[in-house]
Every structure is written in structure tokens, then in C-alpha cells.
Amino acid sequence: MKVLRAVRDQKYLLLMSFPFVIWVFVFSYVPLWGWITAFQKYRFGRSLFNQEWVGLRYFQELFHDDLFYQVLRNTIAMSVMGLVAGFTVPILFAVLMNELKGSLFKRAVQTISYLPHFVSWVVVAGLVTKMLSIDGGIVNELLMSLRIIDSPINFMAKGEWFWGIVTLSDLWKETGWNSIIFLAVMMGIDPEMYEAAKVDGASRIRQIWHITLPGIRTTFSVLLILSIGHLISIGFEKQFLLGNHLVIEYSQVLDLYALNYGIGTNRYSFGTAVGIFNSAVSVVLLLIANGLFRRYTKESVI
Question: Percent of the chain, pLDDT > 90?
């Protein structure tokens, strides 16, 4: 009876959410049917039930491939660097925006910081490559003018610097956009708390430490849990567009590995096995992060 009563009371909300439930089901759950190809020697022209079953053969190939562990290293390294930078800098930026008093200047800075988010990674990769070029690149020109280096450095050919280049490029592109939610939460903090802190003699740094940051703790925890769940699902656009054959040992990630050695070589079953591994690890990381946060901070998403 309670369920029926809840459905009756919230029927309009349920009707509004129904199209989104259908969308998620069609595009997120129905495709999971294709996972069975990871356990088959898939061939075109045959139905899924008329394929040769090979069990865990492709998973065994995956875990015995030395290249897989190199790719996994690259994925985890760039993910962790992006996670740390992608949370620290946007929060600091949001705090600074929250402390600005001039509304016109504040809006101008916010607008400028949001714009890179809407720029395609194709354009961003072109800009980064040009800026780091040895032929008139602004970075090399600046370093040489300051006499820090004597000759141009080919940044895009140094694999050990590739992770940093990707992280900084992503940081420039997404800092403003990622700070929106933190800034919105900060603006919702009761102003009387700041007034009371001023009366007690708290400096602006103390106000930020004891009021602003605790005020965004719940939002920070939820976003961090979700980001940890996507730790190895970082896509491949950045790495594909900024990478080259000289830095392939550092640029190739799991999605590129599945694309190049799965779909690219018509080994669809192997590519599916890589995708299943990616999804399984993401779910495990999400559950672990959620459990730890729920235990130590009382915050969780599940």
C-alpha cells in the first residue's frame, strides 16, 4: 500500500523521469548483450548463438600481454594526475571567485574560464602542439628569451613529459567548467556564518578554512567517489590527438589499446574483453571508494 500511495503522490515526477529511464535502458543496458562476444570467436555474418565459444581465452591473452600492463600503467598514471589536478585547482579557483567582490570583473573571469570547455579537443591539441613546437613555439621562445635553455626542446617527442602535457592541457580546458558546481555550493552557504566569524575576529583565510571548505565537503565527497569510479575510463581523445609514434610507450591507454588491437585488427572479441575489464575495474573502484567514504566521512553515493 505504501508503494502504491507513493506512486500516486509522485505520479508526475515518475512520468517526467520515464523517458530518461528508457534512454538509459536502451543505450546503457541493452548494449551489454554484446559482452557475450568476449567469450566467443566472433565472426561476421553469423548470429551470436552461432559462434564458436572459447571461454576465457581472450582474457588469458589479455593478462599475458606485456603491452597490456604498460597501457594500464599509462592509464592509471594519467588518471591519478588528472584526478588530483582536476579537483585541487577547480576548488582553489572557485574559492578565489567566491572571494571576489567586484561582480563585473567576477563575471568576466568566470565567462573566460568557461570558454575552453566548449573548444574541441582537436583544436586544443593543435594549439598545444603549436605552442610547444620547436619552430616558433611560444614556450620555447619564452624559455630561450629568459636564457633558461640554449636551444629549442622538442616537448612532443619526450615520452616522460607526455603525462604532464596531457594533464596541463586538460586542466586549462576544464578548470573553469569544473569549478561551477563548487562555486554554486559556496554561494549557498549562509552569509551569517561569515558575519559571525568576522565578529569573532576570524581572518578571510580562517573563514575559508572553517566555513567555505567544510561547506563543500559533501559535494566534494560525492564527486570524488564518482571520479574514482571512472579512474581508468578516461577515454582516448587527448592521448590520440596529442600522441605520436615517438611517445607511444607513454601515450597509449586502455581505450586506445582496445581500439588499435581489437577493432583495428578485426579482433572484436579481444576488444570486448578489454572493455569488460575496464568496466569491471570501474565498478570495483566505485564500490571501494564508496565504502571507504561511508565509513570514514559518512558520505556515500550508494
Answer: 52
